[in-house]
Here is the input.
Amino acid sequence: MTTTALRHSIWILRGNPLTGVAAAGVLSLIFTAIFGPWIVPYDPIASNVSQALLPPSAEHLAGTDQLGRDVFSRLIVAARLDLAIAVSAVSLSFVLGAVVGSFCGYAGGRLDRTVGRFVDVMMAFPLFVLAMAMVAALGNRVENIIIATAVINLPFYIRFARAEVNVRRNLGWVEAARSSGESHISVVLRFLLPNILPAMAVQMSLNLGWAILNAAGLSFIGLGVKPPTPEWGIMVAEGARFISTGRWWLVAFPGLALMLAVLCFNLLGDGMRDILDPRMRT
Amino acid sequence: MNQQQVIGRTVRVTLGATMARAGRRFLSSLPALFGVLVFTFLLMRVLPGDPAVFFASGPNASKEDVELIRKQMGLDKSMPEQLALYLYDVGRGNLGRSMMTGQSVTKDLRERLPASLELTFTALLIALVSAIPLGVLAALKPGSIIDHGVRLFCALGVCVPTFVSGLLLIYVFYYLLGLAPDPTGRVDVFTSLPPSRTGFLTIDFLLAGDIEGWWAALKQLILPAMSMALFVIAPLARITRASMLVSLGSDFVRTARSVGLSRRHVVVTYALRNAILPVITIAGIVFSTMLGANVLVEKVFSWPGVASYALDALLSSDYAPVQGFVLLMASLFVLVNLTVDVCYGIADPRVSIE
Here is the structure.
């Protein structure tokens, strides 16, 4: 990063301290995901029925669930799985979407039309329903949650990359690369792709929040993650049975965790967009 | 021609153009719809587990029973044959038979669709009625407390999953305040249902003149609709604000102000009318998102709609209902897009005359 860009970033951060807060939030989320199992006060799986359904207290910060497991410990440990699902799903669709979209935008013609049709078909589905059907078809496992989330994100990345490459394909520097003997594949992969990466990265951050919500939704309806594995969506699903008898903490805290995670990624994405493209600021 | 005739002619021309546009859009969406058909067919055929064994009531069933069911379900034929049969059936409006309910899927879906639609439409209505004023207020005073409040609300709104907000609403309004009824289904089991005319319970109760029943149905409806609306208010309010800001800063609004029109007239008739196009686009997208979110909300509130039906079928590997559901959703998508197109033409006649 050049000094001007750095100075620009600092200037933006000063005007929008929220981005800094969001970045700190994302960092602590990553920290929790990595070190979670070592910093929790209780075993997230061990049940202790004599301690079941206790409200939040100094001893159990977020209360205990129907099996007497400490909700706070489960929340912390779940961060790794939730984050892993979202990050791998988004990375998968990012890589595939960027490459396919770039080639489509660069080549145009029949390839572009075929992929465009395919994307149209995908977009004609209610995406959450599509993900649901895919997890059921591929098998009720975590890997398939990742694949399903990646697939429903894919159309957006393909379209985005296609549009970004399309406006650049005839610019001077692309022309220069071509005329200096670079092959078409090399022009796309070595010149165009790196050029659209920053814009794609913003898209990725904004997308991570959505991916987290989707994955949690899938496990909430009973697909993918299985109990007793701690995961935020499934914790909400388990707590749902106790909400009409007033055990709010079983739903509220996993819900809060989901909300904070999504909020941080969204704010960070917005902030990054401001830094990269000042015109888009609202 | 006098003025009235001119206006009449203009209206006819615009309506015609709008319809032509909608027709073109419909035709161009047919290939996608066909793709959806093939795709769902393939997707459902790779589902794990042998449904024939499943429906022969477990692994203890005799071989002959399983074979019989397999033949009954057409599973003994080749893939292309099965696909051709499936397409032929769909063309005739036959979506197959649900093993779970023993009824035809078309019948099941028709029975349950009004419940889902009533929920989704109510949610959309709540979202629009709260988002547009919020967006307008925020745009009228950018940087004010209202503006920041709306922004905060929007930022938080998109982060709370619908199933969490639904459950928290149940906690507050059912458990704490006791205002809402038991959050299961559309009416409680002891209520006598009105004669079904529209399938929308709130409307049917009104038509039957049963105010008490209407109130009961409305109370059941309001929480699930609210939790669905909360998630989509944010994009709607955001686009209203952005679009209103542009519109309020334009020359025609300045002119309207300077000729002394009332503030209300300037804001609603001039600025909002011109700012509404992007809002319609987003409303279409939002409606489609809500159709997907139905799965979650219907599960939380045990709402007897198409989404919970499909979910139950999915978990018991019953192909036909899931296929039918996905197809229904895709068709609704096409319909929503067409409606958006027609609304476009009405909101801004220039769109239709290219």
In short: Chain B touches chain A through 55 residues (CB under 8 Å). The two ends of chain B are 25 Å apart (CA to CA). Residues 38 and 157 of chain B are 36 Å apart (CA to CA).
